Amino acid sequence: MRKKLAQHGAMKRLLLIFCLIPTLLMAQQDPVSNTKATGDLPEYTSTYINDFAGIITPEAAENIQNMLENVRKERGVEMTVVTIRSRHDYGDWDAIEPFATALFNKWGVGNAKRNDGIMILVAWQDRDMGIELGAGYPPIFDDRVKRVIDHHFIPWFRDEKYAEGIEAGVAETIKRTRLEFTDDGYTTSSRLRAEAENALDSTRSGGIFAWIFGAMGLAGGGLGLFGIRRWRRNRPRDCDLCGRKMERLSEQSDDDYLSHGQKVEESLKSTDYDVWYCRHDDHVMIERYKKWVSGFGACPNCDFLTLHSQRTVLTSATTSSTGMARVDYSCRNCQHKYSEKVVIPRKSKSSSSSSSGSFGGGSSSGGGASGSW
Known about the structure:
- It is a single chain.
- This protein is of the alpha+beta class.
- The chain has four domains: 2-33; 38-229, Diaminopimelate Epimerase, Chain A, domain 1 (Roll), CATH 3.10.310; 236-293, no CATH class; 295-348, Single Sheet (N-terminal domain of TfIIb), CATH 2.20.25.
- The protein has nine helices and 13 strands.
- It has helices spanning 2-27, 58-75, 96-107, 140-158, 162-176, 188-203, 208-221, 224-234, 260-268; strands spanning 49-51, 79-84, 118-123, 128-133, 181-182, 185-186, 247-248, 271-278, 283-290, 307-315, 323-331, 337-344, 367-372.
- The protein has a five-stranded mixed β-sheet, with helices on both faces.
- The chain starts with a helix and ends with a strand.
């Protein structure tokens, strides 16, 4: 009898082990994948824009690509825009966040060592979107991109203006996530500037506590370069003629004092102008501030930052020979146009850089933010 009971107990334990095997295997899976097979995720055809939902107009796509190319050229940061009809087209995904993380990691957005990639994902039919950040971004940037989503993407999307919203949101994302990365991460000055900007942004949401904690954030960040630049821009000006305090005109009022080229620069968001006015002697002072990142260069004919460029590959480069491309320039202010041919360097046999059609192997640990409309 005892022998039968022992055998029965052993069978129960063996049966329990077999029942637990699937659970143990699931627990060992990558938590980022949310137990979904990454094979269901789409493959990219471009490292800049993958408009699977077809909601970006050709003009907006051109402007967005120029911005993304400039970010990659000037900062070495891989930033990509993706639109899909629905995340459910690729599996039973419960939310946009795990889908964005899985897609980011499957594609390998960003530098593999710095993990500095950025993915903007819009699920059109789901009315959801997210900004996925590489693992190299500190947590402070989650709040920053959340504000970008709420104030620069969603308002456009609610009016069904998806192309305009993505274009505006991309520009603001670039502005709010600029970092000076090195192989070991981002520089101390970038960290201080980010903390200072974040504290200043927080004060805009109102409330005495926001002001208190904003001031604490500024003190901790030492104000940084951004705080100093903002203070210098906002400090009162004295009139050169009478010495009285001048007033800064609003964005609507200052257009009366700007030239056509200056107005075009502001409309293209390549430059911002402040106009200071003295009511006592009708004296005007105009100050110019170039944007940190812009898709427009200086026109050789009129000198305004209104020159747009478009690159067309004439002959692709190979590992054995150089290629040739034509760059067409056109000024949005004076309509000056010209073209030039540039040599495309030979491809390296061991290189698989982003410019040759692939991402750099970066990864995300789920950082970023999401929003719905």
